[in-house]
């Protein structure tokens, strides 16, 4: 029996040694490297990367895990505690040296007669729901940032293609003017103006390439990844048509920040109730049984002892700690209520502004299309009249500049219109995955 007991003790000691956490050398965190640029051509690809690597989203997911564990602990608080203890003592009184060995199995259970533990469990449930909503909001924010950055990159690439095409066209125009100048058909001033125009456009191309690098960097940061060098030809995502004309007053209630604030208020209410009930008596049942002997090897052959206790305790003086805890929980509840009101006010204001922006940019896109059509017609007409000697070359340059500005405005507004839809959908609390018909499960 002594050998068996020794083996049990050694097993417990070794098990305790194995519980120690393995320590690994800390390394500096880096962006996840994506070595297949060909797989990053669509918005779907980038959104999937963001769901896996976005640092802010991963922090929110960890907080959701922590809330889940806190909820599990709260559930366990209503269950009985069962402990096994083995202790050894040695005492010396005068000339006597005495040993004591005890093996005890103890049981304790708090009777939740006022519902205090149930309130604490409900508080944990509400806190977990709040963490879930906060995690969902972080997910929507990450998807929004990636979507906006992706659209910005498409716009930048489109403008670069436009500038390169215009630079090539102006180069051909300059060549024609130089040939005409050699024949005495064109003045030197026109040639100088054309050369200036070509140089300016080539400078714009160089600048736009820098902007493209910055846009790609922002896209990588939003997704939380770093891609190897490679040619990207991102495709414009398809937007599902939405009807924003019949939005009711309940439109803000689906927002994750509003939901999170609501669950925070419920959690603070339950915490206040638990603090109030902590001021009243609590019942606790404890029982224990085990063996006691002077010699360790004869522990299981020693006296068997048992006891049980019903405990009723009422705090009489604690320096006001329980009363202060209750007052603080009530203050937290008032803060949560004010925060919910503030969140609702901001939600309604944000939706109103984003809705107005959505309608305004729709009108601007329509006007930009009209302006672009007229600018192109003026550009073709001015060059035709210049070849006939009806207008000077300055008129041609002015018409070309107006046409370019109109086309840039049209491209920019089209991108802003799509980004505005994303902003409005986010303000309404709708999942962005539904907006793009994305399958983010795989």
From TrEMBL:
Instruction: Extract the signal peptide range.
Output: none
Organism superkingdom = Bacteria
One Pfam family assigned to this protein is OEP
Which InterPro entries does this entry report, sorted A to Z?
A: MdtP/NodT-like (IPR010131), OMP_efflux (IPR003423)
Q: Name one GO molecular function term.
A: efflux transmembrane transporter activity
Q: Which family does the similarity line name?
A: Belongs to the outer membrane factor (OMF) (TC 1.B.17) family.
Instruction: Fetch the PANTHER family from UniProt.
Output: BLR4935 PROTEIN, OUTER MEMBRANE CATION EFFLUX PROTEIN
In Swiss-Prot or TrEMBL terms, this protein is called TolC family protein
């Amino acid at each position: 029996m002594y050998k068996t007991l020794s083996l049990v003790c050694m097993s417990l000691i070794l098990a305790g040694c194995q519980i120690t956490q393995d320590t690994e050398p800390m390394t500096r965190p880096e962006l996840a490297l994506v070595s297949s640029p060909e797989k990053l051509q669509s918005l779907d690809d980038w959104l999937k990367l963001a769901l896996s690597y976005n640092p802010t989203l991963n922090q929110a997911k960890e907080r959701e895990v922590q809330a889940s564990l806190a909820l599990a602990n709260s559930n366990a608080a209503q269950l009985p505690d069962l402990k096994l203890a083995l202790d050894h003592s040695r005492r010396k009184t005068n000339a006597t040296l005495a040993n004591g060995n005890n093996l005890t199995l103890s049981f304790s259970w708090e009777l939740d007669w006022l519902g205090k533990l149930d309130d604490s469990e409900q508080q944990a449930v509400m806190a977990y729901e709040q963490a879930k909503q906060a995690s969902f909001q972080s997910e929507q924010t990450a998807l929004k940032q990636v979507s906006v950055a992706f659209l910005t990159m498409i716009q930048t690439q489109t403008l670069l293609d436009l500038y390169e095409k215009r630079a090539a066209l102006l180069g051909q125009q300059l060549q024609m003017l130089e040939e005409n100048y050699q024949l005495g058909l064109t003045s030197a001033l026109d040639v100088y103006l054309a050369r200036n125009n070509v140089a300016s456009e080539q400078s714009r191309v160089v600048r736009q390439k820098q902007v493209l690098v910055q846009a790609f960097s922002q896209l990588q940061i939003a997704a939380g990844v770093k891609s190897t060098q490679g040619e990207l030809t991102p495709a414009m995502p398809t937007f599902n048509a939405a009807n924003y004309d019949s939005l009711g007053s309940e439109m803000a209630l689906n927002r994750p920040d509003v939901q999170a604030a609501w669950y925070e208020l419920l959690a603070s209410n339950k915490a206040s109730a638990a603090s109030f009930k902590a001021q009243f008596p609590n019942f606790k049942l404890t029982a224990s049984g085990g063996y006691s002997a002077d010699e360790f090897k004869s522990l299981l052959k020693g006296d068997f002892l048992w006891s049980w206790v019903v405990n009723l305790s009422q705090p009489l003086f604690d320096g006001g700690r329980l009363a202060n805890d209750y007052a603080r929980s009530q203050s937290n509840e008032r803060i949560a209520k004010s925060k919910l009101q503030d969140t609702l006010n901001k939600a309604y204001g944000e939706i109103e502004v984003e809705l107005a922006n959505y309608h305004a940019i729709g009108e601007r896109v329509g006007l930009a299309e009209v302006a672009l059509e007229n600018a192109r017609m003026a550009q073709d007409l001015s060059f035709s009249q210049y070849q006939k000697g009806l207008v000077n070359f300055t008129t041609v340059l002015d018409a070309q500049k107006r046409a370019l500005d109109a086309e840039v405005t049209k491209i920019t507004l089209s991108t802003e219109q799509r980004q505005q839809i994303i902003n409005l959908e986010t303000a309404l609390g709708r999942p962005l995955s539904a907006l793009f018909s994305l399958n983010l499960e795989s």
